[in-house]
């Protein structure tokens, strides 16, 4: 593994950046303009002012993002997300309407292969958004997710759910990681 | 369009009754929180339906507010429930 | 009645049907975590469908922007709320073990609790 994390060491807490967090500023301004519902000079300027005040009053630890956006990976990520959303919604709906015994469930442990808060968060978010899997616990130090999976019949379903989670992570990494991160990620995957 | 809207409204009303039933019988606070989340989603759907029928946008800000209030509500109850757990030691 | 209206009506119908199915699941599923699965459906997919339906009816850019904001807030907040509730539920023991085929979390939590206070 290329990078070790030192969580819980007091002196090593994430340093709050003193400079301006441009992505955050732009994001907040976009939300402000969307809420006011019109792209005018006044809206953009007042949004910028509010964004500056918010980022100064409530500073966040910077997200470590060393990668770059890959258009193809992002398209694959979003496309698969929509497909999974539709398929999983139909599956859960079928389970809810099925007559007879309610389905069995499982709580499974998924060891993610990357070691990055950003990819961990994104993978967990996407997995939670898809019906049928729910993140119950997260271990940040080892990048482990504990998923609650609805409607398993046997061991093979459990393994399928685990593989689905890992594929979700792979798509996230392929969409966002830098070349070195991607290489390290793929190299670690082979060893397992 | 009107027929569609009425069918939708019927489904939403039935859904709201079922959700309210779950909210009443519980049995725990967390069950009620989940039911409340679904109820908020149903209210958002209902308001949106009305906006789509009459082609106006006056209720859209309410949708924004509801989508955020529901989040704050369930997170605070979840925290409260977890805290409560520690205090009673079970 | 243009074809946009037809698509919009289909989206609205599907979204409302998902809400209804979610409510049925909420009543029928035996334990809290399964009910949460049912609950995430109208919040994510159903709501997205309904928002698309409204957007196709209104066809005004500033309104579509506001709908986009609603969708974005939902996508950002729903998993966080679900995780908080699910975690609290699991830690409180609100999970019915007889509905679980595999449980890989309880041993981990017990191993962590033993050396602790």
Structure description:
The complex is a heterotrimer of chains A (about 190), B (about 90) and C (about 120). The model of chain A is unreliable at about 1-15 (pLDDT under 50). Chain A is mainly alpha-helical. Chain A has helices at about 20-35, 40-55, 70-95, 115-130, 155-175, 180-190, and strands at about 105-110, 135-140, 145-150. Chain A starts with about 20 loop residues before the first helix and ends with a helix. Chain A has a 3-stranded antiparallel β-sheet, covered by helices on one side. Chain B is an all-alpha fold. Chain B has one domain (about 1-90). Chain B is built from 3 helices and no strands. In chain B, helix 1 packs antiparallel against helix 2. Chain C has about 120 residues and is mostly helical. Chain C is about 80% helix and about 5% strand. Chain C is built from 4 helices and 1 strand, in the order H-H-H-E-H. Chain C has helices at about 5-30, 30-60, 60-90, 105-115, and one strand spanning about 100-105. In chain C, helix 1 (about 5-30) runs antiparallel to helix 2 (about 30-60) and helix 2 packs antiparallel against helix 3 (about 60-90). Chain C starts with a helix and ends with a helix. The model of chain C has no long low-confidence stretch (mean pLDDT about 80). The chains are: A mainly alpha (about 190), B mainly alpha (about 90), C mainly alpha (about 120). The interface of A and C includes residues 31, 86, 138 and 152 of A. Strand 1 of chain A pairs parallel with strand 1 (about 100-105) of chain C, so a sheet runs across the interface.
Question: Which helices and strands occur, and which strands form pairs?
Answer:
The complex is a heterotrimer of chains A (192), B (90) and C (117).
Chain A lengths: L21 H15 L4 H17 L13 H27 L7 E7 L5 H13 L3 E7 L4 E7 L4 H22 L2 H13 L1
Antiparallel strand pairs in A: 1-3, 2-3
Chain B lengths: L1 H24 L3 H26 L5 H29 L2
Helix pairs in contact in B: 1-2, 2-3
Chain C lengths: L2 H26 L3 H27 L2 H32 L7 E4 L2 H8 L4
């Amino acid at each position: 593994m290329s990078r070790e994390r030192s969580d819980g060491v007091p002196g090593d807490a994430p340093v709050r950046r003193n400079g301006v967090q441009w992505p955050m500023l732009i994001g907040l301004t976009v939300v402000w303009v969307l809420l006011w519902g019109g792209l005018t000079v006044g809206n953009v300027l007042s949004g910028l002012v509010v964004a500056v005040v918010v980022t100064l009053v409530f500073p966040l630890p910077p997200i470590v993002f060393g990668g770059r956006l890959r258009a193809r990976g992002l398209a694959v990520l979003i496309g698969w997300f929509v497909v999974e959303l539709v398929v999983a919604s139909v599956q859960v709906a079928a389970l809810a309407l099925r007559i007879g015994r309610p389905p069995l469930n499982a709580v499974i442990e998924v060891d993610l292969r990357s070691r990055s808060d950003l990819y961990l968060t994104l993978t967990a978010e996407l997995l939670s958004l898809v019906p049928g899997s729910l993140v119950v616990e997260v271990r940040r130090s080892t990048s482990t997710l504990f998923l609650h999976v609805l409607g398993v019949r046997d061991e093979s379903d459990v393994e399928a759910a685990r593989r689905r989670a890992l594929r979700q992570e792979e798509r996230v990494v392929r969409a966002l990681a830098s070349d070195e991160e991607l290489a390290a990620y793929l190299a670690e995957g082979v060893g397992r | 369009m009107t027929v569609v809207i009425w069918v939708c409204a019927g489904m939403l009303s039935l859904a709201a009754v079922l959700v309210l039933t779950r909210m009443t019988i519980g049995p725990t606070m967390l069950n009620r929180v989940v039911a409340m989340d679904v109820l908020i989603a149903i209210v958002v759907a209902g308001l949106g339906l009305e906006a789509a029928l009459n082609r106006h946008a006056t209720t859209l800000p309410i949708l924004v507010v509801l989508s955020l209030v529901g989040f704050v509500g369930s997170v605070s109850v979840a925290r409260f429930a977890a805290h409560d757990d520690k205090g009673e030691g079970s | 009645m243009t074809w946009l209206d037809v698509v919009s009506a289909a989206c609205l119908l599907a979204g409302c049907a998902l809400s209804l199915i979610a409510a049925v699941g909420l009543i029928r599923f035996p334990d809290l975590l399964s009910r949460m699965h049912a609950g995430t459906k109208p919040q994510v997919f159903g709501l997205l469908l309904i928002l698309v339906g409204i957007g196709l009816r209104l066809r005004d850019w500033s309104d579509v922007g506001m709908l986009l904001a609603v969708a974005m807030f939902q996508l950002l907040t729903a998993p966080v709320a679900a995780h908080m509730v699910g975690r609290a539920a699991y830690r409180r023991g609100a999970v019915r073990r007889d509905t679980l085929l595999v449980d890989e979390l309880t041993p981990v939590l017990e191993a962590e609790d033993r050396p602790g206070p």
